[in-house]
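Hello forum,

I keep getting stuck at the same step: I have a sequence, I want structure tokens, and every attempt I make locally crashes halfway through. Rather than fight my setup again tonight, could one of you with a working pipeline run this one for me? It's a single chain of 253 residues.
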Amino acid sequence: MRAVTFLSPGIPLELFEFVVGYLGRELGREIRLESEVRNSGPMEGDDDPFAEGRADLGFLCSPSYLYLSSLERPSVELVPAGFVFADPRIAGRPVYFSEVIVRRQDPATALADLQGRVWGFNDRCSLSGYFSALQRVDGLGQNGDFFSRMVCTGSHRRSIESVLDGRIDGAAIDSNTLSSLYRERPELRRDLRVAESLGPFPIQPVVMRAGDARLRRRIASALLRMADSGDHRRALAACGVEGCTVVDERFYD
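Reply #2:
Ran it on my machine without issues. Output:
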């Protein structure tokens, strides 16, 4: 089997390496993992590794899942198990937030305060980095001219660095990415500040190439019991994850 993640390095690659290794043992199959860093998932006009038969299992952002599953011949189907991250705000739910970050000394206390300033986003498929901000701006009764300029940085980590060095004034960052970076670089808390939290949003889905319902159920079952082992719980906890819980298509409506 071939697996691909579109979510690293924002979410640590070690998480997906562990999950794929665990699934390989549970299924009795070799599973090879690739990491795609160009975007958060295929959208219209992009190469689709699932339709092309180059990927069987995927970890991607929900706008990509919604697009791929809405095609006349859907290339993916949802694996009904979603990650639960260690965030005291989520109470065991498979959700996450989008954190609007600014430099520590910036006076902004909400996304609304960044009107007329320079905004950064990781890519146009990202729910946390792109669509969450557009939805918030729309809720403010504004339009595409809200920011003076929008800059595509290429990743959440680059967005953070661009805020720190002043190339952009603000960005929306996946809350689990930000937590992971805080674990790696505690000094970031001195230099960055969360002005507003957007969400919660459904956690990034796990998908399978369309067509093998039995294998999809087996993978979901394995993911749902993944944290039953103490060793597995510790490995997941090192990546900020508590385990998995049931999700379905309606969760992403």
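Residues 13-27 form the longest helix (15 residues). If your local run keeps crashing, start a new thread with the error log.
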